[in-house]
Amino acid sequence: MSAQPVSTQVVLTDSATNKSVNLPVLRGSVGPAAIDIGKLQKETGMFTYDPGFMSTASCKSAITYIDGDAGVLLYRGYPIEQLAKQSTFLETSYLLVNGELPNAQQFSDFEHLVTHHSMMHEGLKTFLHGFHYDAHPMAMLCGTIGSLAAFYHDNLDIEDADQRKMAAVRLIAKIPTIAAACYRYTIGWPIRYPRNNLEYCTRFLHMMFEVPSEPLHLPAVAAKALDLLFILHADHEQNASTSTVRMVGSTGANPYACVAAGIAALWGPAHGGANEAVLKMLDEIGSADQVGKAVERAKDKNSGFRLMGFGHRVYKNFDPRATIIREMCYQVLNDLGVHDPLLEVALKLEEAALKDPYFIERKLYPNVDFYSGLIYKALKIPKEMFTVMFAIARTSGWVAHWLEQHLTADTKIGRPRQIYTGPITREYTPISKR
Ligand code: SDX
Questions:
Q1: Among 80, 93, 200, 360, who pairs with 396 as Cys (CB 3.0-4.6 Å)?
Q2: Structure pTM?
């Protein structure tokens, strides 16, 4: 196949006035080219219109690359399959934040820093006790992370590179502690402090499940499975929550406010909230013989029902993360001796949907959220905590993008325009005349 012509500009012509404008074409290291429309409004008086940003690149980034047609996902150039097999979540977090894999000393320093910043301020316990005991953990996490700006208020100079890096470390270090504390509060258990002798995921599981009365016996597969899930959820270029973090970051807001905004965006069932919604959907379907009805419902526009965990804005092929999680699901359930009938429902649902023309035509495949909930469930993590798990992992991606944004020369405050459809100028009438 001949190489694609490397266009350096495109010409847009307005058929009404026959006026043309030349717009430069930008290229990254790989992936689609982009038309730089920065001067479009000034030269033509017109905007572009792209709700949901289906064809819009909002920034330049060197962190993650996705090829949706080929089902490729790279973190700083490393294929997700290789990182899933050979790396750890903390090492992957270092890679996302710093751009390179650490050597032994760099990793040891990073791990020491994260470990020794994993405690949360005692004042946060009082803050947590202000919540209703059975509040959703995502509501508590969003509020608590945002409140960190009230505990580190003397360290919020975002123009200071060291303070930016410290905030990133604090967020990666503290979010598991705070997440576990939110969970423990909802079940009335005392908060467990992070133990420095444990690695990141084991430490989190201890904070989640250890009770003062007896030692916790964790199956080896638990921390390994969690670490892999965290690697797979760590970043995903300009998804809704990361774009939210960047939007808030573009105003100069502090990193805790940015990540709290990202958590809020992630909670939606169309985004990170899908993993909890998948389990609810599988529960609702109940058994493999009800799968056909669910598929028909999902195809009926009037039903308002969608197959949660299916479809993706970018992947029009298998989500590579879903493939890895699917394989891991079998291993974890087998190693834990768990027989979950919902796995059979999930497999049947996947098989039925992948054969159905409606899903085939729309290129709807299982995404990262389709199987992850079954593993969290096998690890005895309650479904209300599933999106919290996603937030723990994605914090590394969010802070990586927040840091990158501050080092990018053409970062401006995000301020999209609109097509106005409201009434045009009209005179005010006093109430006596209305
Ligand atoms: C994540 O962006 C990211 O990278 C996100 C993420 C990350 O790591 O950050 O990958 C994590 O959020 C994964 C997605 C989790 N969400 C879900 O599983 C919820 C169910 N999926 C959908 O709501 C939907 O597929 C989206 C939100 C994921 C994508 O929506 P799009 O790209 O806006 O697609 P669309 O809504 O325009 O749908 C296109 C067509 C429509 O039919 P037509 O109008 O063309 O006839 O596909 C249909 C939709 O009705 N469709 C579905 C469907 N998803 C899309 N029909 C049934 N079931 C579904 N799940």
A1: 93
A2: 0.95
